[in-house]
Amino acid sequence: MSGRCSEEELPPFPEPEISTIALEGKPSAKIAYTYYPPSNSTSNHPNPFSQTLLVFLNGLIMPRSSWDASINSFLQNRITSHLPYPALLSYDRYGQGDSDHDPDDEGPPPCHGHDIMSAVCSCRQFLVQIWKEHIEISNPTHFPSLIFVCNSIGCAIARLFAQTYPGTVSGLLLLDSIMANSDFVSFWPDPDAKDFDPHTLPPGVSLKDVRETRKKYRLMFHPSVPNSEGLSRRNLSQLLPSSSSPELEGQGGVGPYLTVVGHDWEEFAEQNFTGSLHTPKILTMTYLNPVWQMYNEGLVKITDEDKAIGPIVAVGCGHFIQRDGPGFVSGEMVALLDRVVNRVEQLRERDTG
């Protein structure tokens, strides 16, 4: 007789709650969210994640719906394996997706209505209210143990959250973090600089190519450029001047478990070329990818050495890893949960190539 459970014996797939909430102090604006309850605990099989909240933090462009495929893959994996899982929460920040704009912003979007620290504080208040409403009533506890799964600028928000509220974050999955200390222009060569040597350019690259690339990146990615969310990046390099510091304090006074993931160089270069930027692939490969790799190598130092994995490569994925590789994200979520609950040291060799 097979020991494998039949499909009928599997626990049901959790029904998500798709709703909105107003933060205390900002009653006129709603934040949209999707919440999955944790798996049930029994006397024989307690859920070790009953006091854990796994939170997804978006970048500037992709809303909370971009995590749906990764969440479904993760839950399917846990359910079919009869393994417990924590509560999962995705949300649209003010000005994103289905959420209202921040009522404290002055002027219509695009604007520099509020900064990253404002987003961090709003995130904290949001999580407090969600926790009280969904978990704390039946399971009294202090603030939950947080695991952040984040992309792009969401990684900066996660770092600043853990820095501002030490002891609250037990795990971080950083998916192609924004280079918080970059203006996204300076790493390209400047053809108009006095000391510029045109012979240093890669073969086939013209001065026009470089000038146009610098212009496009300045117009789209420079921190001075406002966005429809109203989330200003003008002071981000001051808030996070280094990728390797400060070192974060997780629960119990030790560093949080951390996985740092970078994009696939070839796929990212291809998307940059075929997308709206039309950046020549050789420029991305020569100037942008190496700088991003160095930034990711610094990120693994923000926790204890035995708590960090990475930087690893999301093969076949560009910057939006949750869009291009939801199965990959799901797998890394499973691995991170295993490390958090079992308090295991990382065994995977770091990919430094």
Task: Kindly describe this structure.
- It comes from Zopfia rhizophila CBS 207.26.
- This is AB hydrolase-1 domain-containing protein.
- Residues 54-324 form the AB hydrolase-1 domain.
- InterPro entries: AB_hydrolase_1, AB_hydrolase_fold.
- The chain has helices at 68-80, 116-136, 153-164, 207-221, 236-239, 265-274, 281-299, 321-324, 326-342; strands spanning 17-21, 31-36, 52-57, 87-91, 114-115, 145-152, 169-177, 231-232, 257-263, 308-314.
- The chain is of the alpha/beta class.
- It folds into 2 domains: 7-182 and 230-342, Alpha/Beta hydrolase fold, catalytic domain (Rossmann fold, 3-Layer(aba) Sandwich); 184-222, no CATH class.
- Strand 3, helix 1 (68-80) and strand 4 form a beta-alpha-beta unit.
- Helix 1 packs across helix 9 and helix 6 crosses helix 7.
- The chain starts with 16 loop residues before the first strand and ends in an 11-residue tail after the last helix.
